[in-house]
Amino acid sequence: MLRVLAVDDEKPLLEELLYLLRSDPRVRSAEGASDATEALRRVTRALESGPDGPDGIDVVFLDIHMAGLTGLDIARLLAGFARPPLIVFVTAHEGFAVQAFDLKAVDYVLKPVRPERLAEAVRRACAQLGRAEEVAAAAAAPTGPPAVVPAPRPTPEAAVTDRGPEQIAVELGGVTRFVAIADIAYVEAQGDYARLHTDEGSHLVRIPLSTLEERWAARGFVRIHRRHLVALARIDELRLDSGTTTVRVGPAELQVSRRHARELRDLLMRHATG
Hints:
The chain is α/β, with parallel strands linked by helices and 274 residues long. 33% of the residues lie in helices and 30% in strands. The protein is built from seven helices and 16 strands.
């Protein structure tokens, strides 16, 4: 069972988060901190007491925007410890997801927090903590076969899937939307995430660009750069200038890497004449 510290400088939101965490049977204890200073003091005491000590903390649920140090600052500080607690970010801001997962966050939960979404974050934390304990136990064992760790169950964010043949599910602010793949002009890699660009805006999904490249090849999406996947039919212009190849997709101008340039030109010619 998890020992949890929740950190948020807005008291009503902190109390609601603690209420939801304490209602989860997988959570042994849940305490709150209303600012970064208090949070760091609590975590430092927990680390000093050791993982099995009375003040131990397994997971920190962190808001990002707080007075003084931000949640990202706290996570960076904790990363310097030998055995830091797991981190789950709980925030109203979508735009920090890439930085959060660069800091090895277990999950990134958007406010307003839905109970089922928070329960999924708890599940992920339990799974990761369990794997770490199994690895440690296996390393300490003198003999015997290696432990078999079951693969984690896919989740709506960890394994974004198509809805039938035409749509993809994305989550924003606790609401799941279904975006038509035909409306996506290009996709931009952002760490372990991909940002889907449409005429109306963009959507961040937790899935690597390479996976979308493989999945959407038959739909006319082509890789033009390590950072970009483009719908061939949405390319308005191909330009070669001083050895640099770019394409215009609506208002966006995207660079084409040298190793993809020749193939892209051939595809565009076939598309135009076919």
